[in-house]
Amino acid sequence: MVVVFLVVLAALVLFATEPVPIDITAIGIMVALMVLEPWTEVSPAEGVSGFASSATVTVLAMFILSYGVQRTGAVQILGRKIAAFTKDDENRQLGATIGVVGSISGFINNTAAVAILMPMVTDLAHEGKTSPSKLLLPLSYASMFGGTLTLIGTSTNILASDLAARLGEQNPEAFSELHAFSMFEFTGLGIIVSVVGAAYLMTVGRWLTPARIPVREDLTEEFELEEYLTEVVVTDDSPLIGRTVADAIADTDLDVDLVQLVREGQTFVEPLGPKEIQVGDIFALRTDRETLVGLIDAEGLRLLPDVSVDEEELEGDGADQSLVEVVIAPRSSLVGETLATANFRDRYDATVLALRRGPEYIRKRMDHAELQVGDTLLVQATPDSISRLNVNRDFIVAQEIERPDYRESKIPLAIGIVAAVVTVAALDVLPIMVSALAGALVMVLTGVLKPPEVYDAVEWDVIFLLAGVIPLGIAMEQTGAADLIADLLVASANFLPPIAVLGLFYVVTAILTNIVSNNASVVLMIPVAAEAANQLGADAFAFVLAVTFAASTAFMTPVGYQTNLFVYGPGGYKFTDYVRVGAPLQLLFAVATTLGIAAIWGV
Questions:
Q1: pTM here?
Q2: Cross-strand bridge partners of residue 267
Q3: What's the rounded Cα separation, in Å, for the pair 360 and 8?
Q4: What is the spatial distance between Cα 568 and Cα 151, in angstroms, rounded to a whole number?
Q5: Which UniProt keywords apply (predicted)?
Q6: CB of 425 within 8 A of CB of 384?
């Protein structure tokens, strides 16, 4: 038991601090449990059982189904219709954002729902003269409580269902109430918390959510670049004449980026490297005043007076380029890299003008800043380059981009396949794992997805995370670690009624989820909750459900849930914003969930 607790402690520290990605930590846990088999009682077969778990396979299939819907462009079409309805009314914008993402998240992976809808919501805010910050945090929160509507709303629900079924099968006498969740078994409770959550976000939450990003008229103003963008002209005595742009940049260690070149009325953008510098060339630069003075003195350049380099200037008709915000996605290969080591400019034919990390702006020496998940880059690039960034899984482009390859003709098929999967599972004709796999196969056979896209659709880090943490639950059960924690929590029943103990499990799980992975929280807490219910003579299903709902709703930190990280940079939020807006909502959900469970299932 001591060995297992040490593994759990190490896992929690690594999950919270993330010195390595959480999926790698999960695999490390799995290996450690197998290597320490004499103490953990986890055999090699049990150690790798997570890969064969019905939860893991179901989540994998759901990723494919979600991606199939995404590739048809159905959600984007819905977004355009919403924009036409909401216009510049903030109440409508907020209500539509919460309603749409909440509904969609019940049937496609909520992480995917936020990634798809974030560009639409950002554009909605800008077109309606609303701060994006007022909509993006509600987008993330609504996706979480929308995921509680059905079994397939989140990977957490699917994992909890699998764990509950396994406990019920292993110990039917103690856990006779436990079974695999049906598709709509807890939809009633999901509706209750969704209504409570939506009401909060539309009232108190709206007041508490800050407008960190100003209403945008100009992206250069939003990123406060007025003092960092300027234009210079090459004089006839400049030592740069005759050299290529690439050579000139390579020979200087000054903090400067060439944004565009204007020559004889014609504008050139990336790739600028091969261009040979000529007398009279006008360069738009991104640099600071101190560097600019040194650059002008050393390189024979002259500052153009009374020139304002703004979004209109950079997106002029002759420039054939745009400014867009690009978010570093979770699992991006650029995390931990710098713009220099990633060779960003040459690799993507794009220039980064500024970097926003939460509320912090980085405009100087950006090339040496290590990129993190949620960082927002202000990028200038041609439409082709932006399209390539849009389809790259390393990024989320935070504005709507036209994709000519959406398979809109397949929309009825994709939606019909997802509906069939849900219906077959709900009617108990087939287990959800089988129906989801069949649906994924039909997506390919009908042309909604191409075969190679199946592998692109799966978020493999989530699959390895699930496979890695499932053996930890086995170890806790088999060594008695879960029983010991349950004994400690059950001791509170000496002075608390059972419904308060149920609420305590919600609160403990919610706090844990805000620090570590939601799936890890479920694996750790469900065996404890089931054992505690058994000792109290309470309904084990009610306790398992409290843990499941708490693990699916991590509102208080940006690292508690992937969707919170998605909106951290684009919303310009501070860490404390999540506490200010999320803590009251978390407490409200603790009460609503506990009372809802007691009313529907009893305690």
A1: 0.77
A2: 262
A3: 34
A4: 27
A5: Membrane, Repeat, Transmembrane, Transmembrane helix, Transport
A6: no
